[in-house]
Specification:
Blueprint (H helix, E strand, L loop, with lengths): L18 H7 L6 H12 L1 H4 L4 H8 L3 H10 L5 H18 L13 H21 L3 H13 L3 E5 L3 H14 L4 E4 L2 H9 L6 E5 L6 H12 L3 E6 L5 H4 L3 E4 L9 H24 L1 H18 L7
Parallel strand pairs: 1-2, 1-3, 3-4, 4-5
Helix pairs in contact: 2-5, 4-5, 7-13, 8-13, 9-13, 10-11, 13-14
Amino acid sequence: MTINAGETPPDVSPLTPPVTAAIQANWTRLRPALRRVAEFVLDNSSVVSSMSVDTLAHICDVSTATVVRFCQEIGLTGYRELRLGLAAETGGREHFGVGLSGEITAEDSLTELVAKVAYADARAIEATAAMISETSLQAVVAAIVAARKVTIFGVESSSVAATNLQQLLVGIGILAFDWRDANAALVSAALAQSGDVAIGISHSGVTYAVVDTLAIARANGAATIAITSNPRSSLAANADHVLQTVVQEGTFRSAQMASRAAQLMVVDCLYAAVARSTYDRSEAALRAARNAIDQHNPAGYHP
């Protein structure tokens, strides 16, 4: 989803994000009473799926109206949709052979570990896809298409998405650079100007190297975009547009691994949308690249 810094999320796609992921995405906006409900739902999702609204309200020491308001705050129409969503998630865990929490533990077998990683990645991709607004995505695509150059910043695990996006954009004829070294990134941001696009990628939204770099690029006139799971982070505050990923928190780096899958899904959507927007140019660029690779390879070798 693209969110102007500090604003409430706009319209979303017809897909429905997993309930627990929606809770995580809206966590920072929940008031204390609503957060009590959220905590219980996250810890007891399979039980809540068969629980009445009165029972949940009693357990959380809130009114039934507060439970309904909680449902609405995370984007649902009411308590019935909450129960159905939780039941569907429980079924999804069963499909992957994943236990109630889905968290990786020291006691997991390799089979269980693979199932849990697959479940976390699949849920992150599904939830992130559900948060993408067609109108908002198009605004980001338009900025990239019109850009003099695109500069992408990402460190540690987010550098994978940054490098992937840079390579994809270059492959369809768009001048793009990615920087993983903090000093090189700062130099690039200092030289940014109007007509450029700067993209910062950080799961937490508080990675200081990426935040500072995006802030400098923005101060120099570049259009700025953040890809983060925290739309109210300092990274988002320095962005003209935010593409939000949705990842369920977990133990043993499971959230960090799933965040990479969600980031790469956003990257693929951006690439495909930009390529569609510049179809003839992109097709010609891909054809030229393929011809160059074919001419370089030994005769008769077809990868």
